[in-house]
Design a protein that fits this description.
Number of helices: 5
Order of helices and strands: HEEHEEEEHEHH
Radius of gyration: 22 Å
CATH architecture of the largest domain: 2-Layer Sandwich
Oligomer: single chain
Number of domains: 2
Helix content: 10-25%
CATH superfamily of the largest domain: NADH:ubiquinone oxidoreductase Nqo5 subunit
Shape: globular
Largest sheet: 5 strands, mixed
Length: 199
């Protein structure tokens, strides 16, 4: 499979010879750096339609705090038919902090890009619904940036958050806080029948 992956990586590098760096291998997975982030969606479309990388495994980001460009965005691709992995990496500066969306190539990119935006502050142009996915709307920081303190930052918490009881709160399948013995807190220690009788 490594030979197939290398051959596919070389095809992509040849098709994007002006912006694709040399392919590098690590543990039978190949990585190509795309120097022009504005072309990442085109490279991804080529990888899917021409090379058979039909599964977007993940999109992640790296904060190289102190370097310029500061961020890297990493696209992990996989092809089910040829069982090969390919990693595309592109850099984006803190000033620009924007790349084109690949949600038009793989629909799963929708949530991956939202997570990168929420945690790192990198926007994706053309994304159908770019809003926070883990933090609440209006949260002013990006928690995975290296300049974000480990202890967090003081923030006004919205009054609307957690205003309703969780659907299973107090139910038989939820751990009970505050019991002296860990075993007593576990859901298996509760009687499902007695819980239903108290409802």
């Amino acid at each position: 499979m490594s030979a197939a992956a290398k051959r596919l990586a070389q095809k992509l590098r040849k098709a994007f010879s002006g912006i694709a760096g040399k392919e590098t291998e690590f543990r039978n997975e190949w990585t190509i750096e795309i120097s022009d982030g504005a072309k990442i969606a085109e490279a991804c479309q080529f990888a899917k339609s021409e090379l058979g990388f039909d599964f977007l495994v993940d999109i992640s980001s790296v904060d190289n705090y102190g370097d310029d460009p500061r961020f890297e965005v990493v696209y992990e691709l996989y092809g089910y038919e040829h069982q090969s992995h390919l990693r595309l990496v592109t850099a984006v500066s803190e000033e620009a902090a924007e790349l084109p969306t690949v949600s038009t190539v793989w629909r799963t990119a929708d949530w991956h890009e939202r997570e990168v935006y929420d945690m790192m502050g990198i926007r994706f142009e053309g994304h159908p619904d770019l809003r926070r996915i883990l933090m609440w709307e209006g949260y002013p920081y990006f928690p995975l940036r290296k300049d974000f303190p480990l202890a967090g930052k003081e923030t006004d918490f919205p009054e609307v958050a957690f205003s309703r009881e969780a659907p299973l709160e107090g139910g038989p399948f939820v751990t009970t806080p505050g019991a002296d013995d860990r075993g007593d807190r576990e859901p298996r220690a509760k009687s499902v029948i007695s819980w239903y009788l108290t409802c």
